[in-house]
């Protein structure tokens, strides 16, 4: 096998798998956090009074 024994290949493969898993987990967590923040913001905006909503919308138009 090109001078490498099976255990060295296994260690390299395990390391690459671990690094890939780390970055995949970070990516998925960022998506989950963003989705949760958007949901909480929607709930907070739904609880606002009409006057507060309209003031926010006026500020967004400027």
Write down the overall geometry. rod-shaped
Helix content: over 70%
Quote the distance from N terminus to C terminus: 67 Å
- The residue ranges in which pLDDT falls below 50 over 5 or more consecutive positions are none
Question: Could you tell me the strand content as a percent range?
Answer: under 5%
Radius of gyration: 24 Å
Can you summarize the main beta sheet?
none
Average residue-wise pLDDT: 89
| Secondary structure category | mainly alpha
Q: Helical stretch count?
A: 2
Which H/E pattern describes the elements?
A: HH
Count of discrete domains: 1
What is the count of β-strands?
A: 0
Keywords: Membrane, Transmembrane, Transmembrane helix
Description:
The chain crosses the membrane at residues 6-25. Keywords: Membrane, Transmembrane, Transmembrane helix. This protein is an all-alpha fold and 62 residues long. The protein has one domain (6-61). It has 2 helices and no strands. The protein has helices spanning 6-46, 50-61. The longest helix is centred in the middle third of the chain and has 41 residues, at 6-46. The N and C termini lie far apart (67 Å). The model has no long low-confidence stretch (mean pLDDT 89).
């Amino acid at each position: 096998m090109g001078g490498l024994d099976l255990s060295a290949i296994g260690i390299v493969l395990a390391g690459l798998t671990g690094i890939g898993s780390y970055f995949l987990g970070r990516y998925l967590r960022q998506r989950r956090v963003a989705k949760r923040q958007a949901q909480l913001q929607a709930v907070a905006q739904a609880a606002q009074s009409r006057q507060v909503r309209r003031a926010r919308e006026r500020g967004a138009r400027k």
